[in-house]
């Protein structure tokens, strides 16, 4: 959690590649998408996108995944997912933030 709270202003405003929820929905329909949902376990249990992996922001620094794969990251509004993207990018992962998060998602949910 320390990594999240010590993020500098410069890191926060750093450009982060992002897509809309509509673009994400198209990609999911087309095939293999690695989607990480960084909301809390409770938020994820209430509703989530089918196939998403729940890794709360507080645990994201421990994530061990395929660094050759693009990781799409979502939360409720896009704020936590942006932080997670910055942390994952710093760790060597390719990330794309989902703008608007679950609040903007119109696709099917579990």
UniProtKB/TrEMBL annotation:
Any one Pfam family match given in the protein's UniProt record, by short name: Rhodanese
UniProt xrefs under SUPFAM superfamilies: Rhodanese/Cell cycle control phosphatase (SSF52821)
Protein name: Rhodanese-like domain-containing protein
Listed PROSITE patterns: RHODANESE_3 (PS50206)
Organism: Streptococcus iniae (Streptococcus shiloi)
Lineage: Bacteria, Bacillati, Bacillota, Bacilli, Lactobacillales
Domain Rhodanese: start-end pairs: 29-107
